[in-house]
Specification:
single chain, alpha/beta, Rossmann fold, 2 domains, 8-stranded mixed sheet, 6-stranded parallel sheet, about 20% strand, globular
């Protein structure tokens, strides 16, 4: 069904080509007939890619059309520095003090739907909705909560935590729908407001068209890490320790799909010399090329600190579904939602530690290597459940249902 409606995505932190935001949600809504605009941040005048690198040669115009989607840019700001003022602005019930560029550009779009992707872009969404309501335009505001924020377990000042919690409670009153990425985060929102409309839309990719089941005959194991690998994400040293330990027992190799902004030369210098022939670094690959990179992978690795972050404990990251989409069973430490999923569909291995060490992963990988037939079975299970229930083709139906529900009230 074609929808003659304007949708405006509000982005305060993510790269504009983010898989969930651009590749999936924006593209799906455009395909459904919505006119999609994105308002996205630049850093020091330039847009940035999903691996953190800067676009210095392209996307230089302040406004442009890319793959059918209008992109409007603004210089990134740091709203957390003025969080007390933001809280006051929310409490005021007015929009006149919402002076940030994301709010001001958003108001000019006069869209039917505003779709905010972070805590602070939701703040701007509230200002936009108030301003448009005052002018007689009744827009709908969706909060796409990719993460749980504020996270009560992370290390941050108590005052900041309290103000952000109070801000969220105020913003939940004025928005129209919450979309999030796991059932536990959904439950967390419902604990704040039992009547809040919340939908879970997983970070699943489109179904990979070519799939080859894993074979149980090979005694070697290829372990993959997909995504950014830097000081904040992933744990390169731990991965190398796992590799080192395992190779004293059996032949384990590691494929890093993505990595960091570093060149391949710089990256390879960090690999211990005696392990260099055990590590294959693909560099950053396009979203569409991930299935090809996954073809020879046996196990996908995810390691999160679930002891010091409730968001990590509840996480269902892109890479989790990317592995399963390509029939790759997952090994992950004790993160509640991923653990429940794996136990339900028998598609991976759990290291039962909120903070898992290299030794913990080593012990489980030794067990995995001793029963290769299970890898093959889990590979088929992983692919089957994505194909039948959880690929993006299924998730976009949930997205359309949210928009259709809101459109009924317009």
């Amino acid at each position: 069904m074609m929808m003659d409606r304007d949708v405006c995505f509000l982005v305060s932190e993510h790269p504009f080509l983010d898989a969930r935001i651009f590749k999936k949600e924006a593209k799906s809504l455009m395909k459904q007939g919505y006119k999609v605009t994105m308002i996205v941040p630049r850093k020091d005048g330039y847009l940035f890619d999903t691996d953190g690198s800067v676009f210095r040669e392209k996307f230089l115009s302040q406004t442009f059309i890319y793959e059918g989607i209008k992109v409007i840019t603004y210089e990134h700001i740091y709203p957390e520095k003025n969080i007390k003022n933001l809280y006051y602005n929310l409490r005021s019930g007015d929009y006149s003090r919402f002076s940030d560029p994301l709010t001001q550009i958003g108001i000019k779009q006069k869209a039917d739907f505003y779709h905010a992707h972070e805590f602070f872009s939701l703040y701007s969404g509230i200002g936009i909705k108030r301003a448009l309501t005052a002018s007689g335009k009744h827009s709908k505001l969706i909060y796409d909560s990719h993460e749980l924020e504020p996270d009560p377990l992370i290390d941050q000042p108590i005052k900041t935590q309290r103000i952000k919690t109070q801000m969220l409670e105020l913003m939940l009153i004025e928005l129209d729908y919450v979309i999030t990425v796991s059932n536990s985060i959904k439950s967390w929102y419902l604990s704040l407001d039992p009547h809040l409309p919340v939908e879970v839309i997983y970070n699943s990719p489109p179904l990979a068209t070519e799939f080859t089941p894993k074979k149980g005959s090979n005694s070697d194991i290829l372990l993959a890490y997909e995504g950014v690998l830097n000081q904040k994400r992933g744990n390169f040293r731990k991965l190398m320790s796992v590799l080192d330990m395992c190779n004293k027992k059996f032949n384990l190799k590691v494929k890093i799909i993505g990595g960091a902004k570093d060149t391949e030369k710089d990256f390879n210098q960090k690999v211990p010399s005696h392990l260099k022939d055990k590590v294959h670094y693909t560099g950053w690959v396009s979203y569409e090329s991930i299935p090809e990179a996954m073809k020879d992978v046996d196990i996908g690795w995810i390691d999160l600190d679930a002891a010091n972050s409730l968001n990590n404990r509840f996480a269902m990251p892109n890479k989790f579904f990317s592995y399963l989409n390509n029939g790759v069973p997952v090994i992950v430490n004790k993160c509640e939602d991923m653990e429940t999923f794996i136990q339900t569909y028998y598609c991976g291995y759990i290291v039962k530690k909120l903070q898992a060490t290299a030794q913990d992963y080593f012990q489980v990988l030794v067990h995995i290597q001793s029963d290769r037939n299970k890898i093959q079975e889990m590979s088929l299970n992983a692919r089957s459940i994505i194909e039948t229930k959880y690929s993006w083709e299924h998730m976009e139906k949930r997205l359309f249902a949210v928009y259709n529900q809101l459109a009924k009230d317009m």
